[in-house]
Known about the structure:
Elements: H1 9-44, E1 56-68, E2 71-82, H2 91-96, H3 99-111, H4 119-122, E3 140-141, H5 145-165, E4 174-184, E5 187-196, E6 201-209, H6 214-226, E7 236-239, H7 243-253, E8 259-261, H8 263-271, H9 276-290, H10 295-306
Helix pairs in contact: 3-5, 6-7, 8-9, 9-10
Amino acid sequence: MAVELPVSLAAVVEGVTAQIEPLAGQAGVLIMQAVMDAEVEPLAGPKGRHEPERPASRWGKQPGYAVLAGKKVRRARPRVRDEEGREVGLRTYARFQSPPRRQNSICRKLIHGISTRKYERAIEDFTDLPVRPVRTQTGGYGISKSAVSREWVSATRGSLAELCERNLVELGRIVVLMIDGLVYAGECIVVALGVDETGKKHVLGVVQGASENAAVVQGLLDDLIQRGLDAKARRLYVLDGSKALRSAVKKTFGDESPVQRCQIHKRRNVKEYLPPENQRAVDGRPKAAYSMTRYADAKKMLLATVM
Length: 307
C-alpha cells in the first residue's frame, strides 16, 4: 500500500544541505592533502619505500594552513628537502593558501552585505568545527574583524586602481555619459558612467572631493580624456542639474553638447519642496509626463505639476 505524506521540499533541501556542507568541507580538506601528497611523491618517492635515485627526501610535516570557504583552515604541510638539505617548496601548498583565493571569498561575502563584524558568524563552517582558534589540524582561524578589513582593503585597492587607470579606447564608442555625485560617509564621490552603442554600462571613473564642485568634476573629465575618451565625439550628457557639472561639460566638450537633465533627480528635487502627504500624488505627474510621446501632452502634464 502506497502512503503519501505532505513534506515541505524546502525543509528536505535544508536538511540535506546541512549534512552535505560538512561532508563537502571534509572532502575539500582530504583533496588538498591528496594533491600535496601527489606533488611530494615524484620528488621523494612513495612513502615507506627507499629509492636511491630520488632527488629529495621527506622531512616530516609542519603546522600550516590552507584557505577553505573564505577562512584559514589548519593543515599540516609536508616537508621535503633536496640532497643538499635545502627546503623544497610545494607549489600546491602555496596555491591553497594564496591571498587572492582568500580575498576573493571575503569580497564576495562583503559585497553581498555581510559586515566585517558579522563575518566570523556568517562563514559556513565547512569543517563542522568551531570557528574560534583551536589546536587541531582542521580548525578555522584568522577571520577576525581586523583581518577581514585588511583583506578587504588589499583586495579592493587593486580593483580600484585597475578601474581608474584602464584604457577607455577598448570600451568602444561611448554614446551617453552620465555624471553624478554621491555622498558617502561624509565624502562626495563623483562617478562617471558611460553607455556604449550596445547599451552596456561602464564605470569610467571615480573621484573623491569635498563637494560636487567644478574643479573636482573638471579633474575627472580631464582624466577620462587622457585615458582615451574622445572629447570630439557626439554623445548625450546626462547630469543631475548641478551648475558645476554643466559648466565642466560645456568647457570640456563644447557649447553644442546635448545635455539631458536626469529625470529622477528632477522629480526628487520637486518632491523636496512639498509636505510628505502631497509628495506621492504630485510625483505621479512628472513621471507620467516623461513617459508620453507627444510634446504637447507632456508639457501640459508638467505645467499641471507647478500650478
